[in-house]
Write a structure and sequence with these properties.
Length: 394
C-alpha cells in the first residue's frame, strides 16, 4: 500500500475535525445569540414594570406600591433587587438570600449581588419626572442561565459519546487485527511445516548418497536454506502464543543476524558496512527467535533506505535513558531518511514506500517489541537525505 492512501486518510480526518469545530462554533454562536435575544426581551419586560411602578408612585399609596412590587414585579422569573435611590437594597427575590432577613450580614451579601448584576446588566432607574425613586437590579432568569450552559453540556455529552465510541471501535479493531495476525501466522506455519519436513528428508537422502564434489556444497547450502525456512515457520507459530522470555545477552543473537545479511549483501549490489556496538554488556529478557525477526526487519528497512553504493548500518545497545526500561537499542543508517508525514505513519500495517511489498515488516516488528516484550519501538530521529535512527526499548 503506498503513502497516498495514508496521506489521504490523514487529510480526511483533518477535514472531519474542522467540520466538527465548525458545528460546535455554530452551536455556541446560535445559543449565545438566543441568550442575547432573551436578555433583550427580559429588559423590555423589566423596563415596562419599572415605568408602571414609577407612574403608580404618583397616585398610589404605600400599600398599593408594595402590592405592585410583591404581586407584579416579584412574580417575574428573574432574580431582582430593588434598591433606594442611594443604592441601598430594600427588597429582593429569586436570589439565594432570605428576602425577609434584613440583617447587616445579609444586606452585605445582597450588595455584592447588586454589584455583580450591574457588571452584567445596567440597572433600570424608577423615576417620577426627573426624580429617581429607586433602581431595579435584575439578572438572567433560570431559563437563560440553563440555555447558556446548554451548548457546553451538549458538547460534553457528544464528546463523551465520541470518545466511548472511538475507544470501543479501536478496541474492536485491535482485537480483529490481533485475530487476523495470529490466524495468518498460525496458518502460514502450518502450511510451511509439511513441505519443509519433506525437503529436510530429501536433503538427508542426498547427503547419504555421498555424491561428492560440488554436490556436497550444494546440499549443504540447501540444508542451510531449509533450516532458515524452518526457523521462519517456528517464528510464525509463536505469534499469538505466550512469549518465552529469558535473560539473554545480545552478543548471543545479533552477530548471527548481521552475518546472515553480510553473506547476502553482494547479491544486492551494495557495499554496506554492518556494525554492532554492545555498550550494555548485561542480560535482558527476550525471545531470541522473535527478536531476530525484529532486527531483520529493521535492517531490511535500513538497507532499502540506502540508495548510494556505500552505506553504513550501526546497531548500538546501551543503558536506557528511560527509568521504565533497562536497555535501548538504536538501529542507525545513513539512508534517505523520512519526512515528517512519513514518520507518523511508518508503523501502520500496509504502509510501504516501495513498489513491491506488503508493508508489514515494521508493523510486525513493533507488535513483537510492544505486545510480546512489553517494550517500545519508535523513530528516534530522521532527516531527509541524512538517514534515520530507530530505537527499541526493552
Amino acid at each position: 500500500m503506498n503513502t497516498k492512501v495514508y496521506r489521504t486518510s490523514g487529510h480526511f480526518k483533518s477535514f472531519l475535525f474542522v467540520i466538527a469545530i465548525a458545528i460546535i462554533g455554530y452551536l455556541l454562536y446560535y445559543t449565545q445569540n438566543m441568550v442575547q435575544i432573551l436578555r433583550g426581551e427580559a429588559r423590555q419586560i423589566m423596563e415596562f414594570y419599572a415605568q408602571f411602578y414609577a407612574r403608580a408612585a404618583d397616585d398610589a399609596t404605600g400599600a398599593e406600591l408594595n402590592f405592585i412590587f410583591e404581586e407584579i414585579i416579584k412574580r417575574t422569573d428573574f432574580p431582582i433587587v430593588l434598591s433606594s435611590a442611594e443604592g441601598e437594597p430594600i427588597g429582593w427575590k429569586g436570589t439565594e438570600y432570605d428576602p425577609t432577613d434584613f440583617s447587616e450580614k445579609n444586606l452585605a451579601n445582597v450588595r455584592k449581588l447588586m454589584n455583580a448584576m450591574k457588571r452584567e446588566i445596567d440597572p433600570i432607574p424608577i423615576k417620577y419626572g426627573d426624580i429617581v425613586l429607586a433602581e431595579l437590579y435584575y439578572g438572567d432568569s433560570k431559563s437563560i442561565r440553563r440555555l447558556q450552559w446548554l451548548p457546553f453540556v451538549e458538547i460534553f455529552i457528544v464528546s463523551l459519546f465520541i470518545m466511548v465510541g472511538f475507544f470501543g471501535f479501536n478496541s474492536i479493531r485491535r482485537s480483529e487485527q490481533q485475530f487476523i495476525w495470529v490466524g495468518m501466522a498460525k496458518e502460514t506455519a502450518h502450511q510451511l511445516g509439511t513441505p519443509i519436513s519433506s525437503l529436510m528428508g530429501w536433503t538427508e537422502v542426498l547427503k547419504h548418497r555421498n555424491l561428492g564434489g560440488e554436490h556436497e556444497t550444494i546440499i549443504s547450502d540447501m540444508q542451510q536454506d531449509i533450516s532458515r525456512l524452518d526457523k521462519v515457520a517456528k517464528r510464525f507459530s509463536k505469534i499469538g502464543s505466550k512469549s518465552d522470555l529469558k535473560e539473554r545477552d545480545f552478543d548471543e543473537m545479533l552477530p548471527g543476524v548481521l552475518n546472515y545479511f553480510e553473506r547476502r549483501l553482494p547479491q544486492m549490489g551494495k557495499k554496506v558496512q554492518l556494525k554492532f556496538e554492545n555498550r550494555f554488556k548485561k542480560c535482558v529478557p527476550f525471545n531470541p527467535d522473535l527478536m531476530e525477526w525484529v532486527f531483520e526487519n529493521l535492517i531490511k528497512n535500513a538497507l532499502d533506505a540506502i540508495e548510494s553504493v556505500h552505506g553504513e548500518i550501526t546497531i548500538i545497545a546501551a543503558d536506557s535513558d528511560s527509568r521504565k526500561y533497562r536497555v535501548m537499542i538504536d538501529v542507525v543508517d545513513n539512508g534517505k531518511g523520512m519526512d515528517a508525514q512519513t514518520k507518523k505513519i511508518i508503523f501502520r500495517p500496509g504502509f510501504s514506500t516501495k513498489k513491491r511489498g506488503w508493508g508489514l515488516g515494521l508493523s510486525l516488528a513493533r507488535r513483537i517489541v510492544e505486545e510480546y516484550h512489553h517494550g517500545k519501538l519508535m523513530v528516534k530521529e530522521t532527516q531527509p537525505g541524512k538517514g534515520s535512527t530507530l530505537r527499541i526499548y526493552l
